[in-house]
């Protein structure tokens, strides 16, 4: 991966400024970078010129205008889904595309892409080992059940292996915009414990055993992916 493939946070803020944006969903607060001085934004400006987004006089190129339009579309999405370092944005008026912000370096460097939804399943299976898990027969008989207090305590003390997934859902038009409003925000942390699939409702600090069917249903709904196509790809259980 080269610098051409990634954007520093300051670069994304400068691109957003082209459509009057003061923030970019999923990025740290702009004020934090402004307080660090002008050097970061000056370097970001020069990087955008090197990428061909701005020309030598600082004007948008044709390619740069497409990047600005795509980021503006991302910023105006009605819903977002974060899966580990991948943040998907979805617009109600665009049934074909997802807008994808990928954290490459924590709070500092990101990739930004517009992805045809038909490739989302492929991305999920490539990036998240948890989704390659074979679903035990037991999980075919239930979707979600709360763990006992004893099991919840033991699961909380365990160390997850590479099969983990942090899921956050944001529906930005829902009010009030507080974590306690499930219509606006939900967050689950999933991992395997004693070969059981565990989902922690992070906001409510509740522990559940869930089935692969439950997880895929969550992904289909929030990623706005047609179940029919998922069935055809053989990804209905883990």
Automatic annotation (TrEMBL):
Top-rank lineage group of the source organism: Bacteria
Alphabetized InterPro entries for the sequence: EsaE (IPR031682)
Protein's name according to its UniProt entry: DUF5081 domain-containing protein
Organism, as annotated: Listeria kieliensis
